[in-house]
Protein 1
Amino acid sequence: MENKTVQTGVQIRSKAALVGRFCKSNLALVCFFLLLAFMAIVAPKYFSYNTFCSLFTSISAFGVIACAMTISLIGGEFDLSVGATIPFSTLLFSYFLPRVGLAGAIGISLLMGLVVGAINGALVGYVKINGFIVTLAMLISLSGIMLVFCQGLPIGARNPVTRRFGTGKVLGISYITFVYLFLAGLSEFILRKTRYGRSVYAVGGNYEAAQNAGINVRLVKMSLFMLLGLFSVISGIMMACRLQAGSALYGSDACMQVVCAAVLGGTSISGGKGSALRTIIGMLVLGVLTQMFSYLSVISYLRQLVQGIVVIIVLVMDATINRKK
Amino acid sequence: MLNTKRFKLLVSKYGMIIAMFLIIVVAAIANHAFLTAGNLLNILRQTAALGLMCLGQTFVIVSGGVDLSVGSILSLVGVTSVMFIPYVGLFMALVLGVVIGALAGTVNGVLVTKTGGTMGNAFIITYGMQTVLGASTLMLTGGNIQYGYKYSEYYKVIGQDSIGIVPISVIIFAVFAVVAHLLLMRSEFGRSVFCIGLNDEASRLAGLRTGRIRTLVYTICGALTGVGAVCLCSRVTSASPVQGVGYELNVVAAVLLGGTRLGGGAGSIAKTVIGVFLWGMMTNALNIVGITAYPQKIVKGAIILLAVLLDIGRTKAENEILAAGV
């Protein structure tokens, strides 16, 4: 009899542990449903097909850069300079759109992103300077270049094609949402199914071991930053199309948000672990949070505060779980 | 062969100082006002606050971390110290402000320790704290500037007045620099800070209480940032809730410029003091030559990178000379 109760006790504990483990490994999903439940109580009208579509539209531009950030975090690197690359690409795109046409504007912006990424990547991968410092210096310098370029002013980008791309919808779902989901899927495919993806995990998990296994670790590190540059520009162009303008402020706060989303989605800051699809859920949590705050008309400072606290809590939780293991 | 190596070492060791010297010479030729006693005192006064913040940051960087929340701590301390004045008087308000800075630093330290104390975690935790503290400051003030001189006519004394010809804030900086030097370079605590910066695991196994030391390091950084904030806000007679936005970049840059190595285990207060003055001279020189704020950013970013590159070059050259057996 006594034995039996002990056994059920163990079973209950193991069930609780199972639920706990599920919550920990699917933190973003749990947060997402908790937020939705909260909204269901506070604002039942919130739930509609349109708000759901607009939720996706609102996260699309930052979502794209979140994909690249996830890949680079898995590879053990982190990029502060996206806070300058994204706004600079909105400005370049808007400036060159009426002057050299759509293809030219896209080309010039992409070139800028790749050059920035290549410089970052070469300095981190080959010269072996700490990635934080390289991208910090790049952030400062590039925002200087950007501000000299635009003199602090926004640049309008009026063009029927880009406008249609930025604001058009199919079945209520915006075009840019499709682009986002396609790129997220592509990132996940690259990570899971290609040789390159596996080497990113290897380099992030154990640099020395990856090197000994014959992976070109320097090139992988460099490629992470070039990917970030590329995706920053895509995200910037999406933003410029949607808002029909470029500005030094568009996307300048992206870095904190996308790192927050990636960490919420279970990507490890120390590298070697993560998934691009889960980052989507992280982005959704942040998106719902923003919509919730604007729905309840809470001041925007509070949103920043909550975002910061969420990052810190998730990091501390992640570290304590890992240490127990 | 060895001479070229020696030369490389010399260049990488003193390259930054040479570069700065060139900037100063150019500025002095371009504008005669640069090398006047008045302007030099002005530079000292302007950099005292930055210097205090850099002293704290040096502790953190030597311990193998980095504190990106100092900009927000600056805003928070500036604003709260003014808000306290009507309730507790000027002196106590300033003290309370510094205490708040120290507490913010303690929170940083505890969180960084909890997450394992690595560089990457320190970076992101303090980056998150920057957001949290910055938003709290904005919420606290509703976005309004707090005018210290409205509450107390003595508010601007620290930042603007002088004893003899030496500004009070510079005296404060000098005193804290000496104390920080003794603490970091001459005390047991200082040695343990170097130890955890060099090898956290080994220090822990050797019996050092790494968590406690790390927390203390971040607390010192918060407190010194608080003192810097008081000096800065006093100089401009008011505290803005966005005063410190982006300031952490200047602080980290000036410390690295001095030659303290990011990653921990190497550096000194003397280097930081040199770095701070070089940074102050350079900012002033750029202003005086007529380079505006936007292009200045480009130059500053490039200088941070150059400082780190030279540091790598120095390490390499030192190793080569050691390997040559001389």
Note: The first strand of chain A starts at residue 155 and ends at 156.
Protein 2
Amino acid sequence: MPDSLIAPAAVTDFESVTLPYLEDVARFALSLTRNRADADDLVQDTYLNAFRGWRTFRPGSDARRWLFTICRNAFLRARRRASVLHESDVGDLDALPAVLGHVQAVRDGLGELFDLLDVRPAIERAIDALPEPHHTVLVLVDLERNSYEEAAAILQVPLGTVRSRLFRARRMIQEALIVYAEDAGIATRSARPTAVDGEAG
Amino acid sequence: MTALSCADAMRRLWEYLDGALPEADEGVVRQHLAECARCRAHELFERRLLAEIASVRYEHGELAALRDRIAAALGSERARVERSDA
């Protein structure tokens, strides 16, 4: 569709529909880029791409989700220019969501971890250190409060992929927390459980 | 004892906490947690972990300047579109 078919009225609609989500998009962009200047560039790219694709937006549909999808796609395009993405989903390993991490943590006496330590810095560092694509899924679900279904729509991946990436991201954060607690002298690591059933009662 | 093993309950724990389980499965996990003190301890740990993660917010901070920048960019794009119409 040529540019001339973007009518002035549609431009007004575009701004009234999309600008209320600027803060959400900016926060999401910052969580992706982890850098203010890059985030601002990404937000601008997001809004310009959205404006150019305004005709594809279905009135009444979820504009926030639409903008997040465009933002994520723009981010990935920028990253592809800089480096090659490495997918690292690990199938069955990711299917063990909470078990290994927290069984380990409780076994190591970390049940009171949150009361004994200020874990916020460790969690922030662990989130920043998450590799893609796990980082983006965790941000979408745990920080931006999207459902699994919404995250799958934004990322254009199956629901099971969202689930496995999210659980793997959380397990990496758990592991980082355990290391943080060990470094703080809160706990001594015991032998890592090799099977979930070993804990079953 | 419940029909669900501890291992199965733990496998579903994050989906349970996320409200992402089908209703019937959610009820089974809830029942197991009510009856199993060890799994309940794990549940409390995971609830705290997810709450701590959720408390991390990447606040942008200077939205007014960004809003002006976006408005200017959209204005330039609009002008480009209008020039192409002429």
Note: Residues 1-5, 84-97, 191-201 of chain A have pLDDT under 50 and may be disordered.
